[in-house]
Fold this protein.
Amino acid sequence: MSEKIRVLLAKPGLDGHDRGIKVIAAAFRDAGFEVIYTGLRQTPEQIVNAAIQEDVDAIGVSILSGAHMTLFPAIRKMMDDKGLKGVILFGGGIIPDDDIPELEKQGIDKIFTPGATTTETIEYLKGAVARNKKEDKIM
Amino acid sequence: MFDKDFLKKVAQKRSDWDKKAEKFKCKKSRPRFITVSGDEIKDLYTPEDIAHIDFEKKIGWPGEYPYTRGIHSTMYRTRLWTMRQFSGMGNARQTNQRYHYLLKNGQTGLSVAFDLPTLMGYDSDHPRSLGEVGKCGVAVDTLADMEIIFDKINLAEVSTSMTINAPASVLLAMYLAVAEKQGVAFDKLRGTLQNDILKEYIAQKEWIYPPEPSVRLITDMIQFCTSHVPQWNTISISGYHIREAGSTAAQEAAFTLADGFTYVEAAMKQGMDVDEFAPRLSYFFNAHQDFFEEIAKYRAARRIYARRMREKYKAKDEKSWLLRFHTQTAGCSLTAQQPENNIIRTAYEALSAVMGGTQSLHTNSMDETLALPSDKAALIALRTQQVLAHETGVTNTIDPLAGSYFVEALTDRMENDIETILDEIDRRGGVVKCIEEGYLQREIAKSAYRYQLEIERRERIIVGINDYIMDNEQIDIPILRIDESVEREQAKSIRLIKERRDNDKVKRTLDDLVSTCKTNGNTLKGILDCVRVMATEGEISDAMKTVFGEYHEPPVI
């Protein structure tokens, strides 16, 4: 049996809408993941530092304020600057479909939009972490 | 409510009917019959369900205690609710244009939406504002922005609601300064500040200072407005965000009323007479999808409020007993899928608010799960209210659902549920204690998770989400985009203002404000001096932070 998936859930920027991230946190816990929640208003640096400290497999970010095109790339860049490798960055929120390809291009693995189910996100994360670990071994 | 013989006959008939219906009861069109809040609903309500309700004490007459049927004796026959669409986006100029557009199309009150940096007390050029400027509402840094927002809008003629909480004093001061420039006396100004900091800690999470100094800022403002801006509603105690965060209907009403009573107690502790300020308190609720549950919520909340204000807080002025409220349809009920369906959802929600006796109403736009409303979506939302007011006939009579076995039984149950929660909050030491311990936040998160699981188990059908899904759906409604240039322009304008203003004077007034914060002086007066000399919102908030400190939420999941 593989180890428990460790995931950091984070709210960057000034956005206080935390209903979605708390639902996801509860669902991930029920699915047997180790969940670390940063709380609100985290800077990209705080998020990446927490991810390093907690040695997580993935970072999940929720943004409902419209600042996603600034904040997702900022977190990605901070991960690269701090040499955080092999950690998946994914997220969700009020994000227009048109913005998703650009975010994916910038290294955000997956974006969930309103209406996504907790089951979908759980299955996605299991798959993504397994894929990542396999790639790690090959390298 | 009924005599014994009649009830006996009804009970007999009910049991006959139950037997007759038995063979159909095993077949169910849905697995469970529950409200949006998860409460079971019976198959049929009869006189038995309301037999225990005392008509005079519990239902009564519109405009009379306990106001279950409405706070005014004639309700919409004399005056329709205020159609107040919440809006604001990008920069001040864009927002001003939207206001002229809405007023031209028959909107009857303004309601300002600010962007996140403004709501949190940061200037647009602050590093924390990165990516957020103008996104969720209009960016306001100085008095100059506020003047443009209300350009060619006579403040003596409109009533303006401002959704602002932690920095509410600063934005009110700017509004007052705009009125001075327009030559409008303060006592002519009508409007509402949201200014409800307790629900920020509970649900919306846009705070600056810790609870204690935050409540002081509010009581300072109540005092200032009571003497200088008497027509201003200084606080709009809000359940809206509590519901959006996932609470049930009863939790929304209970947490909101508990917040209201906390402010009442705080002001009384400062030595104010309850009848001096209570008539200016107003409330703000969410209109969710469950039609009858929502109507029961408004009716029960009015009843409880009147009773507590009269019995517990000993208010003597009838105006202190009235639960006056604004309603907004539920943003969280809208879907990104097939967004046009949101027009229909909003219309039903608006109908429940009107059947529940709201004083003003905001109807959401169909595109709000995707972006801020486009002109077209905002207009349809406003038209939804106009159709409701003028075409459906629901405004012809007062509280049309009173006496319905179901609605009265549901109102009564809602009242009990709300009272139970209020008692639990008291038992735990009051609202502030419950916030500090994360109790309210956890209760809301639990309800939100339950609701989500009901959808995923398909116990609850949401059209376009877990049924009636359209494959390969193309969204073809216009989406409003806020240009990134707003951020650069705001930053530039702050730079120019700082070059041109009298910086010595700014420093002096900010220092004075700091001293006021340290003593018992009225903070609103000090803030008004600062905005007049073009201090920025961020500078004012930073000055107050040096005395009051900043709030940090312990992460609760």
In short: Chain A is about 45% helix and 15% strand. The radius of gyration of chain A is 14 Å.
